[in-house]
Amino acid sequence: MRPPNSAYGVRIAGVGSAVPEKVLSNADLEKMVDTSDEWILKRTGISERRIVDPQTEGTYTLSCDALRRALQYAGIRGDELDLIIVATVTAEMTCPSTACRVSQALGAAPAAAFDLVAACSGFVYSINIADPLVRSGIYRTIGVVGCDAMTTVVDFGERTVSVLFGDAAGAVVLQRDDDPERGCFYQKSQADGRMWGSLYMPRRSQDIPDHDRDNPVKLGCLRMNGREIYKFAITKFREVIQDALNATGLSTDDISQFVCHQSNVRIIESSIEKLGLPAEKVYINIDRYGNSSAGSVGLCLDQLWRAGKINRGDNVMFVAFGGGLTWSTSIWRV
Ligand code: ACO
Hints:
By secondary structure, this protein is an alpha/beta fold. The chain has helices at residues 26-30, 37-44, 59-74, 98-106, 122-135, 159-162, 226-248, 265-275, 286-289, 296-306; strands at residues 9-18, 23-25, 48-50, 83-87, 112-116, 141-149, 167-177, 183-191, 199-200, 223-224, 257-260, 315-322, 326-333. A five-stranded mixed beta sheet has the order 1-7-6-4-5, with helices on both faces.
C-alpha cells in the first residue's frame, strides 16, 4: 500500500517502447520446428512476434531505445535522471548491469543504476520499488525499463518454448509530483521459490533440478514446464486482481485499464470471464508480440498511453507473474 503521509506524489511523465523490426510469424516457425499456425494460435493467441538480430540488437539496445523515447515524451534529459532500473533476465552481461550501460548511452551519470531480475514480473516489481523512492523525496526522477530479448535464450529446436516468446522493451519516466494522490496507491510484489524448477535458465549442468536430469536441457536456454506454469498463472492472475480490488475497495468500474503481462491469451481471457472484467479494459497485444517477459507490461502501457486510452486521473492496474515464481500488482492514479 502507499506509504503513510506521503510528502509527494508520482507522475508518469513519459512512456516509451521498442521492438525489433524483424517479424517472426507462425508460418516462419512452421519451417523451423514441428508446429502449426493453427496450434500456436489456438493454444496461445500468438500470430507473430518480433525477433532481434543478435549481431546488432539485444536487451541493451532495446532498453536504450525505449527509455530514450520515454525521456523524449517527457521532455526530460538523461542527466536529469536520479536512478535507472532495468528489469530483465536477458542481460548480455551481468557486470556491468544493463542499467549502467543505458545510463552511459543516455548521459545519465551519476544516476544510480541497477538491473532487477524478476522475470515476467520485472517491470511491475520495478515500478513498485520506484514509486516510494520518489514519493519519499529520496529521488526526483527515475527511469524504469522492462526488457527481454527472449529469442536470444530460446532453443529454436524445442517447439513448446520457442513458439511463445518475442523481444520487446517498455519504459516509463517517473517524476515527483506535488499532488500526493498521484502515483501508486496499492502494490504487492511476492514470490515463491518452491516452484523455480518450472521455469529456469541454467548456465551449469549441476544446477539442473533433479526432475530434469534425464531430459535434454540446453545450457543457456529457457526450460519450462508449460502445464505447471499455465496452472499457476491462470489461478494467480485472478487471485491478485481480486486481492487488489478487495484491499482498495475498488470495483472493476473504478479501473480504467488492466495492463497485464501477455503470457497466453487463454490466461487473460479466463480472467476476463471469471472476474467479469470489461474486455475493452484489458489490453491484449500478444497476437502481434508474443510473450516478451519483462518487456510486455511496459509495451502495453506505451501503446495504450499513445492511443489516448489512459488519461489524467485514471486508475490503472498493472498485473504480472513469471519465473521465480514471482508475481506483482500495482494500482496507479495517473
Ligand atoms: N506445436 C504443436 N504441438 C505442440 C507444441 C507446438 N508448439 N507444443 C506442444 N505441443 C503438443 C504437445 O507435445 C502435446 O502433444 P501430446 O498431446 O501428443 O502429448 C500437445 O501439444 C498438448 O501439449 P500441452 O503442453 O498440454 O499444451 P497446452 O494446452 O498446455 O499448451 C502451452 C502449451 C501453450 C505452453 C501452455 O501450457 C502455456 O501457455 N503455458 C504457460 C507458459 C507460459 O506462459 N510461459 C511463459 C513464461 S512465464 C510467464 O510468462 C508467466
